[in-house]
Amino acid sequence: MEPSNALRKMQEVQFALVELQLYLDVNPGDQRAVHQYNCLSKELIALKAEYETKCGPLMQYGFSSSPSRWVWNATPWPWEIEY
Question: pTM for the full model?
Fold first, then answer.
């Protein structure tokens, strides 16, 4: 998957997770929404892992590991990728 497509997909999933979180704050007993939230959360984790494997780390301060060498300055920053 192209870096720009991967970032776009992550943004879409993150948006859906924010919306579901807001919904669940008001409707905590909706098991269907909880299931959907958990599924999207797992999808986001997988998308981030795939992106970081192919394109480099997304987050700093220990949230993303670095391969055997430091790669933060070797790949385009997320905001440098054209959509």
Answer: 0.74
